[in-house]
Design brief:
217 residues, Transcription Regulator spoIIAA, 2 domains, two-stranded antiparallel sheet, elongated
Length: 217
């Protein structure tokens, strides 16, 4: 091979490598909440506020927005980290905000889904924060109205559990632990069926370790 072709080949390889490097653009995400997040113009309707911001976020060059846990909490004013019902996204008349106790801090389920659709239409990914390993507020501290005598639990709380077999005091560490095999929760497993967001870390393996199995909550 002549020197002429060697030089051309080296230049071509340099251009290919340079273009590949330039194509690796890092994404920018916005944390779309804070601990006491609220907007007086959008009471129990944070999803509507975020949806209205979507065009401005796109113009600012943002690629994703991180939102708080959106399911129903023990108290209507809580910000998402005391989940009462993982399956209530603002569509059940219990412990919510407003006169009918329906809404979460984000609003109704329809308002949440609309916000996600608006974000996606503006090219913005939605990152959902979640709480997997505990629930709260279905009964009382003493167990009245919420105690399950057959619940698997820590001895210190007398079997008090919000829902049957859905949470434990601490996660299992490995498969040899007895409580690993007694886990019956299904929320993590079917999470993506009713939360229309891509990028579930437990399906890609970059967050949830293999030894947790298919049902970690």
């Amino acid at each position: 091979m002549s020197k002429h072709w060697v030089v051309k080949l080296l230049v071509l390889l340099f251009l290919i490598n340079n273009n590949s490097t330039q194509a690796q653009v890092k994404k920018v995400a916005l944390q779309g909440f804070w601990w006491d997040y609220k907007n007086n113009s959008y009471p129990f309707g944070w999803a509507n506020y975020l949806a209205d911001l979507a065009p401005r976020l796109r113009e600012a060059g943002l690629d994703a927005i991180w939102i708080p846990p959106v399911y129903k909490n023990q108290e209507s004013t809580w910000v998402g980290y005391g989940p009462m019902d993982h399956y209530d996204l603002g569509d059940k008349y219990q412990k919510g905000g407003g006169s009918n106790r329906l809404k979460t801090g984000m609003g109704t389920k329809d308002e949440l889904l609309r916000m996600i659709a608006v974000m996606h239409a503006n090219g913005i990914e939605v990152i959902q924060d979640v709480v997997l390993n505990h629930t709260d507020g279905a009964g009382t501290i003493t167990g009245a109205g919420g105690q399950d005598p057959a619940a698997l639990s820590m001895a210190t709380n007398s079997g008090y559990k919000n829902f049957r077999y859905v949470s434990f005091g601490t996660p299992s560490i490995d498969e040899s632990q007895n409580d690993y095999w007694t886990r019956s929760g299904r929320w993590s497993k079917n999470y993506t069926n009713f939360y229309p967001n891509p990028g579930d870390g437990c399906s890609t393996g970059d967050i949830c370790s293999a030894y947790f199995g298919p049902d970690i909550s």
